[in-house]
Design a protein that fits this description.
It comes from Rhizobium mulingense. This is Ribonuclease. The protein contains 10 helices and 6 strands, in the order H-E-H-H-E-H-H-H-H-H-E-H-E-E-H-E. The strands form 2 sheets. It has a 4-stranded antiparallel sheet. A two-stranded antiparallel ribbon has the order 3-6. The radius of gyration is 21 Å and the shape is globular. Helix content is 40%, strand content 15%. The protein is α+β, with helices and mostly antiparallel strands and 246 residues long.
Length: 246
C-alpha cells in the first residue's frame, strides 16, 4: 500500500469513528418536564387550599422545592375516560381514582408534594402519569427522586439563603450550572406571579431527556437527565423568594 493510500485510509477511518461518536451523542430534545413549585409563593394566591392553610415556617416545603409533577411532553390524559377528564379539568380531584402506592412511596410523596392534601397526586396521575409507560409507584418514585436532587443542589441553597429577597435569573442559572453541569441553566424556565405589588418566583420547569420516563430514573442523576434535554428561554428574569405565611 502506498503512503497516499495509507493516509486516505487513515482519514476515512477517523471520519467514520467521528461520525459514530456524533451519532451516540444525546439528541438534545426535551421529552419530560420536572415541575417544581416554591410553595410559599403558590400559597399566597391559594390561601384556602388545605396545604396552604396548614403551612408553617418549619415545614419542609417552607425552605425546599415542592413537587408539582413530572410531565411527558405534548401528551395528556392517555386512556382516561371522558368523565374523569371532565372532572379533572373542573378541579374535582377528589372524585378521581385514588392512586395506590407503597407505604414508603406514599410517605415520601406527602413530604415532597404538599398538594396531596388537595388531591394533587390524583390530578397528576390522571393528566400526566397515564401517558408514561410507568406504574404509579414508579412514576411518583421518579418524581420524588428527581426533586430530591434539586433540593440537594446549589439551587435550593440559593433560594433558602435569599428568602424574602429578590433573586435574578443569572444567579439561578449559575446555580444550575454549578450543580448539574455547564449549560444546565439553559434548560430551565422560571415562572413568577404577583401577590399585591410583589413579583414572586412561583416555580421552575426543568427540561429532561427521554430517560426520565422509565423506572430506572429513580437512580439516575438529575444532571444527566437535564444535559440530555433541549435548551429553552428562562422566562421570568427576577423575583422574590417568598417566605411561608401570609
Amino acid at each position: 500500500m502506498s503512503s497516499m493510500q495509507l493516509r486516505t485510509l487513515t482519514f476515512a477511518v477517523s471520519m467514520a469513528l467521528a461520525g459514530a461518536s456524533m451519532a451516540q451523542e444525546p439528541d438534545g430534545r426535551t421529552r419530560f418536564i420536572l415541575a417544581a413549585s416554591w410553595q410559599p409563593a403558590f400559597c399566597q394566591t391559594n390561601q384556602k387550599k388545605a396545604e396552604c392553610a396548614s403551612q408553617t415556617g418549619e415545614r419542609h416545603d417552607a425552605t425546599n422545592f415542592s413537587l408539582h409533577g413530572l410531565w411527558p411532553m405534548r401528551q395528556n390524559y392517555c386512556g382516561v375516560s371522558d368523565d374523569q377528564k371532565a372532572a379533572d379539568k373542573d378541579g374535582k380531584w377528589a372524585s378521581l381514582p385514588q392512586v395506590t402506592l407503597s407505604a414508603e412511596t406514599q410517605a415520601a410523596l406527602v413530604k415532597a408534594m404538599p398538594g396531596t392534601q388537595s388531591g394533587l397526586e390524583r390530578h397528576e396521575w390522571t393528566k400526566h402519569g397515564t401517558c408514561t409507560k410507568m406504574s404509579a409507584e414508579d412514576y411518583f418514585g421518579v418524581g420524588v427522586h428527581l426533586l430530591g436532587g434539586l433540593n440537594a443542589s446549589a439551587v435550593r441553597e440559593l433560594f433558602a439563603a435569599n428568602i424574602g429577597k429578590p433573586v435574578k435569573a443569572e444567579a439561578i442559572k449559575a446555580a444550575f450550572d454549578k450543580s448539574f453541569g455547564q449549560g444546565a441553566g439553559d434548560r430551565v424556565k422560571m415562572s413568577c406571579r404577583r401577590a399585591g405589588n410583589v413579583k414572586m418566583i412561583s416555580g421552575l420547569t426543568i427540561g429532561l431527556s427521554e430517560a426520565a420516563g422509565s423506572a430506572s430514573a429513580k437512580s439516575a442523576g438529575l444532571g444527566d437527565l437535564i444535559q440530555g434535554a433541549g435548551k429553552t428561554s428562562f422566562g421570568c428574569d427576577e423575583g422574590v423568594v417568598d417566605a411561608a405565611g401570609f
